[in-house]
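Case study 2.
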Amino acid sequence: MKISEPVVRSRFKRYFNPVVRVLQGLCILGIGIFLIMVNAGSPYKEITGHIQDISAFSRDGQNYTSYLQINTDPNDLFIFDKNALHPFWNGQFFKNERIDIYYSNTTPKRIGALQMYDLFGSPTTKFTTTDYTNSQNASPLSNVGLDIGVILILLGISYLCCWTALSLKGKYGRVR
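Prediction:
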């Protein structure tokens, strides 16, 4: 009985070790992909168009919220607080004036920044909110998750490649 016991363990170990190694590599790879997905991209999307209309909603006689409509999708309304824009915007615009809108993809779509253009297509003033400015000026430490994700993906791929090469060498390298 004692003679057959090591054979069972060695067979178990022979098939179990490669499976564990593949699972370890896939786990490292999965964590890396997860970190990249969580940390990738800007929270703001950009759309270019021409101003069709700006409507203001007032509360107690004060301008509370403004809605901007552009020609690319007349059914979409972009909401913003003109008092939150820096530098201060007096609300003056020309119909069909070219504009770039940086907005958060929530409902309703909130504007983080407006880039205005003159009649010749040259950028003039960029009006930004504090949230937009803070997201653009994020410290390099905020990208640590993205960097770690890339490193983990590379480690996972190299781990899987190394163990594949070693197992193939072990399997086919001993043929005489």
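Residues 117 and 144 are 36 Å apart (CA to CA).
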